[in-house]
């Protein structure tokens, strides 16, 4: 601290707090939310903490001050976290088109039935978008049975109506031989799964919709919220998400089939629930994505809260983020194939 002006001493003090906050955020994926639910909120702000520390690095670097090493070291320690935030495009793998399987997941917010987005004919536009992209497997969260567009191109579907639950849907071009609901308790959220027969193989697909954080994505609205009440509510949601995640993993472990877990986490890729779900899976975005991978409409944070996770038996060929704003979520799609040499081990 010697040789620093009073102003720079203040800047370094703030820098230290921000650096420690980022370091703590690195640890949160390993701390169950039931332990310190209020701390889990930090994981949502990790992209901002990365940016602030980067700004401090530039500030001290321009001043040729050794204080640059504090934030630089913290950023380097968590370099792997950057792979969850931003991905440089990798080369697409070549595969026999007959083996390729594509899956899209999309939280459609009930097809805009309550006019959240001031856009006309949104249901028809979603239908046109699906027809154009033509995924083999299609997962919807916040599905509305009455408002759904024509999806007759899919010969098979699982569209349960569950009392007290926000609806979800699984559409497939492959036969469905088994289906069920995870039936999360004391919540309107849920997860579905279906076993699909693809030629001589069977796979299990999970469509998940974890507990909502009930946060208005507008910064202006967030500023109006009581901070203590906000943190308490989000912490409560994180605890429920942890319970729901363990329930999903139990169902995954019960299955003898290669599995895909996809849908809306309602949490970031820096969270405990993401780490638990992805531990034995490949994240399609990390394998073949590009850019920030943003999937949720937020004022300034590139949140990636929708995922496609595949067991190692699947080889990822491609991953695509879409920029069409047809909901408060952006759809994502991945293409992959089943490697029987791995699946049969």
From TrEMBL:
Its required cofactor(s), as named, are: Mn(2+); Mg(2+)
Endonuclease/exonuclease/phosphatase domain span: 104-329
Transmembrane segments annotated in the record for this chain: 12-32, 38-61, 68-86
GO molecular-function term, one example from the UniProt record:
endonuclease activity
| Highest taxon in the source lineage | Bacteria
The keyword Cytoplasm is assigned to this record: no
The record ties this protein, via Pfam families, to: Exo_endo_phos
Q: Which UniProt keywords apply?
A: DNA damage, DNA repair, Endonuclease, Hydrolase, Magnesium, Membrane, Metal-binding, Nuclease, Transmembrane, Transmembrane helix
* Signal peptide limits: none
Does the keyword field hold tRNA processing?
no
Query: Per its UniProt record, what PANTHER family does this chain match?
Result: TRAF AND TNF RECEPTOR-ASSOCIATED PROTEIN, TYROSYL-DNA PHOSPHODIESTERASE 2
Q: Which named protein is this?
A: Endonuclease/exonuclease/phosphatase family protein
> What organism does the record attribute this protein to?
Mesonia sediminis
Upper classification of the organism: Bacteria, Pseudomonadati, Bacteroidota, Flavobacteriia, Flavobacteriales
């Amino acid at each position: 601290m010697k040789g620093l002006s009073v102003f720079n001493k203040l800047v370094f003090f703030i820098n230290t707090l921000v650096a420690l906050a980022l370091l703590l955020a690195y640890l949160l994926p390993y701390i169950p939310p039931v332990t310190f639910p209020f701390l889990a909120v930090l994981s949502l702000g990790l992209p901002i903490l990365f940016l602030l520390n980067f700004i401090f690095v530039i500030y001290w670097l321009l001043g040729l001050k050794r204080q640059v090493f504090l934030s630089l070291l913290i950023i380097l320690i968590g370099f792997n976290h950057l792979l969850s935030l931003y991905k440089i495009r990798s080369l697409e793998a070549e595969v026999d088109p007959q083996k390729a399987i594509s899956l899209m997941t999309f939280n459609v917010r009930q097809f805009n039935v309550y006019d959240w987005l001031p856009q006309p004919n949104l249901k028809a536009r979603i239908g046109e978008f699906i027809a154009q992209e033509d995924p083999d497997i299609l997962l919807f969260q916040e599905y509305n049975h009455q408002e759904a567009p024509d999806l007759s191109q899919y010969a098979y579907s699982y569209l349960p109506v569950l009392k007290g639950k926000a609806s979800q849907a699984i559409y497939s071009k492959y036969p469905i031989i088994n289906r069920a609901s995870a039936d999360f308790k004391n919540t309107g959220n849920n997860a579905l799964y279906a076993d699909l027969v693809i030629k001589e193989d069977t796979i299990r697909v999970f469509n998940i919709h974890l507990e909502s954080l009930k946060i208005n994505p507008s910064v202006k609205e967030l500023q109006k919220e009581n901070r203590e009440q906000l943190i308490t509510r989000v912490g409560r949601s994180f605890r429920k998400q942890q319970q729901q995640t363990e329930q999903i993993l139990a169902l995954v472990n019960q299955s003898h089939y290669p599995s895909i877990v996809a849908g809306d986490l309602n949490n970031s890729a820096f969270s405990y629930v993401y780490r638990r779900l992805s531990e034995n899976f490949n994240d399609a975005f990390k394998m073949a994505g590009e850019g920030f991978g943003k999937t949720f409409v937020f004022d300034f944070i590139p949140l990636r809260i929708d995922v496609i996770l595949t067991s190692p038996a699947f080889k990822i060929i491609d991953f695509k983020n879409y920029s069409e704003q047809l909901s408060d979520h952006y759809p994502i799609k991945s293409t992959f194939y089943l490697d029987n040499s791995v699946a049969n081990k």
